[in-house]
Amino acid sequence: MTTSYIDIESLFESRKNNPLFNTSYPISPKDWVEYSVSGELPFEAIKPMAFYVHIPFCEQICSFCEYTRICVPSKEMQFRYIKALISDIEIFIRQYPEIKLYGFDIGGGTPTSLCDKAFSMLLDEYQNLISRVLLTADYEPSIEATFQTLSDEKISVIGKAGISRISLGIQSVVESVVNPLHRQNVDATAMKETIDKIHATKIKKVNLDLMYGLPGQTADTIRNDLETISFLNPEQVTVYEFRTNQVGSAFSVNSETSYEQYCLLYDGLIRLGYKSDFGQNTFSKDTGDYGVSSYLRHRMLDRWQYKGFGISAQSMSMNGLSYNIGKNDGSILTQIGFNDSYEPNIYYSLPKQELLAKFIAISGYSGGFSLPTANQIMDGQFVSIYTDVLKFLYDKNLITCSGDRIQISKEGFRYYGAILSMFYPINNIEAYANNQNPSYLHK
Ligand code: SF4
């Protein structure tokens, strides 16, 4: 980067309060059009890989949600979708018979919104698959659920399948926050009963998701959320910032309010005995546990390769990313159940600056990024290429550097999106400076 120190400062200032800069990258799919190629994303057969399976069905369609999902369709459509998924997994396994899995996450959407029979079909395939492949020593599979859809039967099926972590969305327990956003939660006593039932099986960890920065959230509602966490006492908590990139311009966020709410959550969770570094979105009662599944941990911290199955799922290998059909095309959801396969239809072969930007954006969830991984992407040149940026951020106390990590400082976290963006290639993102918001983002 040849940008002068003063240019870096003005660039940073122009992005400081721009909500488009966060952990989402690329900022628009149009930014990667030039890297779109035909063919298949190649994986390195000798390296561990993770699977992610996307179930795009939900019983409620929360208006703040940026994931690909629809209301649960008929049972027939559910079966067809699961059959297509299983077929895609089996085809992939035939291609990579020596595969070693480091993780397996079933997410969505709400996987537990499937009917009992479709859910069992999926979990049978899971068990069948892991009996045929190698697993890393730290392999820790995980599944997403909601309290409304996690029946006793499904808890039992999950436990018997050997899935050791369940992640349940709450977002906020305050009805005046979530109800206007088309979400209902069950009461705290019912949540506690469900968590007790989970703990009575072999499922070792429960994670609860909270959000901050949502319309209607205040310091008082955040305190209510923390009180409920204290009562429920899960092993892990994940906090997500409300991002507006994918949900349109109907919402606006105040970055200062978001920052203050994150600080409240962070301080409250630390007081409750959770461990985390400031700026990190995952919290765990166990010091040796990062608070996520092995898939998310290695994806976020180490940039290990992963393969996504199901509509719109993302896959990544060393040289690029691919997206399955349905990414950026919500209309495809109307065809759910009519496809025999959800294989990728977009493949981006990316230059190393874009690979670095994607890695740093994903690592933003951990409040920083690994220096060795950044160096490896940039052929050992990361520090020399970004010396000016690193010096600027360090001199302004926006980052710290300890050992192998660049960590965003407490003051820097107020502008974490702008800090991450200082490592993005400059050419594509000047249009977003000064909070300009290209109309195509909201089509
Ligand atoms: S927040 Fe969860 S339950 Fe709500 S629409 Fe998104 S995936 Fe479905």
Features:
Arc Repressor Mutant, subunit A; three-stranded antiparallel beta sheet; 14 helices; disordered C terminus; binds iron/sulfur cluster; Elp3/MiaA/NifB-like_rSAM
Characterize the structure shown.
The longest helix is centred in the N-terminal third of the chain and has 21 residues, at 75-95. Strands 1, 4, 5, 6, 7, 8, 9, 10 and 11 form a 9-stranded mixed sheet that branches. The chain has a 3-stranded antiparallel sheet with strand order 12-13-14, with no helix packed on it. The chain has 2 domains: 5-29 and 368-437, Arc Repressor Mutant, subunit A, CATH 1.10.10; 49-299, pyruvate-formate lyase- activating enzyme (Alpha-Beta Horseshoe). It contains 14 helices and 17 strands. The chain has helices at residues 5-15, 75-95, 116-130, 152-161, 175-178, 188-199, 219-232, 255-271, 294-302, 352-363, 371-377, 382-385, 387-395, 416-421; strands at residues 49-55, 57-58, 70-71, 100-108, 134-135, 142-145, 165-171, 205-212, 236-241, 282-284, 306-309, 314-317, 320-324, 344-349, 368-370, 399-402, 405-408. The chain is 34% helix and 18% strand. With 443 residues, it is of the alpha/beta class. The structure holds iron/sulfur cluster. The site of iron/sulfur cluster has 13 residues, from loops. It holds the Pfam family Radical_SAM. One of its GO terms (biological process) is porphyrin-containing compound biosynthetic process. Residues 43-275 form the Radical SAM core domain.
